[in-house]
């Protein structure tokens, strides 16, 4: 069991940012207590004489669908059947989640409020595939989000259905087939992921009609170690929709992503979360790299009518001392298509270039364990033509420091 107490405070320069009611002012303070983990685990059987097993875990539990958290990384209410065979060379998971609603400001689980969304995931890991040190992982997943009724978040904003375009409750059924790999081929470290998404959106608000989902996602990171430091290069592609008026939804969206790639939490694009001007949806959510145009990643529904993304990253990381790790990344970001943005903003000729995201950060563990971790960094986002078309021409700077204490 893991109880969590959260206190958060926000101070902004305008009304209607922290709350839908102007009388609430320009500040917001919230406290919340949640049971973020509460599960039990039981071993069903041992397999053979090599300590392989089959176990079941039930309750509010953490789960990550792939190596980097591209599709689903959450702690939620579910049942997971898992095990190993072949002397632990093969691992497998079958998981089913009945998603709990999230508290708006802390993003922690609401205790007894289900959000009428079911998630099914099955994956398999094969170690030493083709070569020693490389693991392959095929997977399948399904997201059944009924989206019944109108739902307002804790600050009074409508998040279901998405408050843009045709505002009608609708059901999203999305299926994913994935193939991933992680490890090394000789001196080359490699991590990659591909997803094909298909299914239906009963009535997408942006398109104003039902949609057949056909979207793709691909990411790859290659790196080489030089003693205590590493050079890496990364490519990310999320397909975009080039025609928001047809019945084909081609923009990729995840279930509940929290990816660790291209700088991860140090990156401005990944960390900050950006709202799209003149709308009530996000261009990109916090802890995500997908420009999915959702009302909320934690409380809204997946949206497959979006511009898509191309991201190119060059990075350097190093263990400066046994206690101090450093990370530097430069990301070049582009939309794949801007037709959806043009339709939403009634603005033609939006450029595809988003900008350059430069970040640097350190992680310090004074006692060489996870009991105390100090994370600090800063990111600088330099807008390109497309970002200037829709938001701001100003360079954006985001310094941060995080202190983690565990006992």
Q: Helices, strands, pairings?
A:
Elements: E1 2-11, E2 27-47, E3 52-64, E4 73-85, E5 90-102, E6 109-126, E7 134-145, E8 151-152, E9 158-160, E10 172-185, E11 188-204, E12 209-226, E13 229-238, E14 248-249, H1 268-271, E15 274-275, E16 282-284, E17 309-319, E18 324-334, H2 339-345, E19 353-364, E20 372-383, H3 385-390, E21 396-405
Parallel strand pairs: 12-14
Antiparallel strand pairs: 1-2, 2-3, 3-4, 4-5, 5-6, 6-7, 7-10, 8-9, 10-11, 11-12, 12-13, 13-17, 15-16, 17-18, 18-19, 19-20, 20-21
Describe the structure.
With 407 residues, this protein is mainly β. The protein has one domain (44-405): Porin (Beta Barrel), CATH 2.40.160.100. 4% of the residues lie in helices and 56% in strands. It is built from three helices and 21 strands. Strand 11 (188-204) and strand 12 (209-226) form a beta hairpin. The radius of gyration is 21 Å and the shape is globular. The two termini are 14 Å apart. The mean pLDDT is 93.
